Amino acid sequence: MIPVPTLHITLLVTHLASQEQVDLAATVLAEAEPSLTELLGGRDLVLPFSGIGHFRKEVVFVGLAPGQHRHTLDSLAELLQSRFEEQGLLQEGNRGFEPHLTMMKLSRAPKLRSQGMKRVDPALYSNYTNKFFGDQTVERVDLCSMLKKKQQDGYYHTETSLQLGGHRRSEPDEAELLRVSRRLVEDAVNRALLQYKQETLQNGGGPNATAPQPPGNTDETKTDTTANSTTDYRK
């Protein structure tokens, strides 16, 4: 089962090979705000989750009911994918978008797979294939890392976020401040370690084998929407 704090809808997945590309992706997301605001027209994007489906019986997900919200979400994803492509951050042909809320993945259960379970029997959730699970309002778009350590609340490491809809907060909440401060500390440490390594090499020496090495900057990054109700699982 997918932990509740990590529930999200993926808008795109890309590979960012350096911190410079991560920073560029954050800039692209920020610069898309006026277009996203115009797209939403001051309205909240409310997603009605209904029914359960699967991908090759290996991934089980909650789907979206049909309606105008789906068109809006498709347009939002298309806009961001175009902006990322324009900056060379997304390869052409990687635009497949099928919004879903993953709730179960066999790839997360190696023990079951080792026991011979290769498919999830649809009979297990047959009573819920047409069930309406409720509405969720999309509050923001997150630029997340799939490789970095998850945050304290269990959600993906978040590089930056863009608030959406008609209920913007005038001030960042405590969770947002914590994310920003943690990211600033991590960036400062990474820069200090990189500078130390460069200075050591310039002085004709090699980095000490026991000294801490700068963490790799290769990153798999995805852009998500996060839908929250009264229970706040935000980063």
TrEMBL record:
Gene3D superfamilies: Cyclic phosphodiesterase. Residues 1-19 form the signal peptide. It holds the Pfam family AKAP7_RIRII_bdg. GO terms for molecular function: protein kinase A regulatory subunit binding. Keywords: Signal. Residues 2-164 form the A-kinase anchor protein 7-like phosphoesterase domain. InterPro entries: AKAP7-like_phosphoesterase, AKAP7_isoform_gamma, AKAP7_RI-RII-bd_dom, Cyclic_Pdiesterase. The keyword Signal applies. GO terms for biological process: regulation of protein kinase A signaling. The keyword Signal applies. PANTHER family: A-KINASE ANCHOR PROTEIN 7 ISOFORM GAMMA, RNA 2',3'-CYCLIC PHOSPHODIESTERASE. This is A-kinase anchor protein 7. It comes from Champsocephalus gunnari.
